[in-house]
Specification:
The protein is built from 7 helices and 2 strands; from the N terminus they run αααααββαα. It is mainly alpha-helical. Strand 1 and strand 2 form a beta hairpin. The protein starts with a helix and ends with a helix.
Length: about 170
């Protein structure tokens, strides 16, 4: 099983893999151990941990296994959208501006991310920051061109499907 996991997710041989021991609690790994759930790999985590994910984990003060699988999905999605739309990686400040780290009610030691409406960094401020980043360096024009090309591709596919249905 570990060999399959190593191969499926290109885990370097320098990373020691092991299965949980009896009475092992993922939220309390031993010294020099890090627990990473398989779902984390399915949602995009790779070893060594990409700098973005390492920065976020460090900034949030959590280990990989302490984040729910949905939190990993949120991180991966945030990263992809930020890179695609803004052309830069999100920072820990950006993550803190949008999300609050919250404990899972019935799972001590497990955390998820939720949007934080009480944050001092309101969504309107985020919108302004997003607009500011988009307007610098002609990013809006580039984004509009990308959206136009994507829209045309969708229209072309719809036309192809219509022809097949006729």
């Amino acid at each position: 099983m570990l060999a399959q996991l190593r191969k499926a997710y290109d885990i370097p041989s320098s990373v020691k893999l092991s299965l949980p021991r009896p009475r092992f609690r993922p939220s309390r790994p031993g010294s020099n151990e890090v627990v990473i759930h398989r779902q984390s790999f399915e949602y995009g985590l790779r070893l060594p941990i990409q700098p973005f994910f390492a920065q976020i984990l460090s900034g949030l003060g959590v280990a990989p296994a302490q984040l729910s699988s949905m939190a990993w999905q949120n991180h991966a999605g945030l990263y992809i959208l930020w890179k695609e739309v803004l052309g830069v990686e999100p920072t820990i400040e950006d993550v803190h501006a949008i999300f609050a780290l919250t404990t899972a009610p019935k799972k001590p030691g497990l955390y998820y991310l939720r949007t934080d409406p009480s944050s001092s960094f309101l969504m309107s401020q985020f919108d302004d920051k997003l607009k500011e980043r988009l307007t610098s360096g002609g990013r809006i024009a580039k984004l509009e061109a990308q959206l136009s090309r994507l829209s045309q591709k969708v229209k072309d596919k719809d036309d192809q499907i219509s022809k097949l249905e006729d």
